[in-house]
Amino acid sequence: MSSNKLDRCLMSFSVNSQLPFPWQEKLWQHWSKQHQQGRMAHAYLLEGHKGLGKFHFAQCVASVLLCTSLTDGSACRACKSCQLLQAKSHPDLLVVTPEQEGKPIRVDQVRQLLGFASKTAQQGGYRVIIIYPADAMNINASNALLKCLEEPGDNTVILLITDTSSGLLPTIKSRCQRLQFTLPDPQSGINWLMAQESSLTQESATFLLNLASQAPLLACDYYQKDALAIRQQVLEGVKAITKRQVSPVSLAKQWQSIELSLVLTWLLDWLSDMIKISQLGCDRCCKNKDVTPMLTYIANKAGIQALYQYYDWLLIQRQHLLNQGNLNLPLLIEGVLIRWRGLTQR
């Protein structure tokens, strides 16, 4: 699944609920207090790890701002405005996303946003603009947005969402109030995940959350695509190529049906553990306990310089993949495996 497809999958959690997730409660209370006291910012930057429900939070904010009959500070879900929102046809809500997967948000889209922000709200209340992912804006789009951030229309709230705020212009970040989304504590994440997927054991939920870096929605997505079984398949292949039991070309063919972004994410995760082992001389800080013996062996053979070089190269390849670059995927997989095997040829 590509990055944008995953984004839409994570968005889907928002369809049937206008309440924030449990781990968002403090941020929600903070924003609700601002709303109730009339101290809202005109623009918010929602930032944090993928899989924490930032888009869902933005929808919750929109539901409150657009509702005409709030009940105890929450959307009533019964007024005309709430019904329009549930039908995804509210005229005072604009969601700006890339027109194609892997493509940037273009300046023309932001110009349409400016036109939307200059109009009077059709339902007589707020206008809400959600930009996701905000870091997908190209430089022209970013510069065009600055005008709206500097001179927002009356009763207009802009919500920018990003997993990596480093991709945003400093001038954009400085004009937004930043809402930093943090990971839930491990047990809360486990409880939520097991409530969503009743067949999960605590052990499996814990493992999934570790794979997802403790991001609950990402862990839920992993479960739904059977990522545990896929990871085991990848792990067996990596063990085989480390032992010279299979060639990179042969293994690349076996992996053709596997989502490459997952493979690269797991390899980076294992490399991160190997770097810790090489630096600290022990495996106590390893995240991937089930593969510690293999990682220790490779780390000791490769050396810290080779591990860092491969890690940096793999990061670049994953970014190219996420950006939907013009890549020869079979050739990329072969290159990844050849370099992995090369770690133990020293």
Automatic annotation (TrEMBL):
EC number(s): the record gives 2.7.7.7
The organism's superkingdom is given as: Bacteria
Query: InterPro entries, alphabetically?
Result: DNA_pol3_clamp-load_cplx_C, DNA_pol_HolB, DNA_pol_III_delta_C, DNA_Rep/Repair_Clamp_Loader, P-loop_NTPase
| Recorded GO MF terms | 3'-5' exonuclease activity; DNA binding; DNA-directed DNA polymerase activity
Which reactions appear under catalytic activity for this entry? DNA(n) + a 2'-deoxyribonucleoside 5'-triphosphate = DNA(n+1) + diphosphate
UniProt entry keywords in alphabetical sequence: DNA replication, DNA-directed DNA polymerase, Nucleotidyltransferase, Transferase
Q: Where does the signal sequence lie? A: none
- What GO cellular-component annotations does this UniProt entry give? DNA polymerase III complex
Q: What class of enzyme is it?
A: transferase
- The question of whether Transferase is a record keyword is answered with yes
Pfam families recorded: DNA_pol3_delta2, DNApol3-delta_C
Keyword Nucleotidyltransferase listed? The answer is: yes
Span of domain DNA polymerase III delta subunit C-terminal: 226-341
Q: Which residues form a coiled coil?
A: none
* SUPFAM superfamilies, sorted: P-loop containing nucleoside triphosphate hydrolases, post-AAA+ oligomerization domain-like
Q: What biological-process terms (Gene Ontology) are attached?
A: DNA-templated DNA replication
Q: Which NCBIfam families match?
A: holB, PRK05707.1
Kindly provide the name given to this protein in its UniProt entry: DNA polymerase III subunit delta'
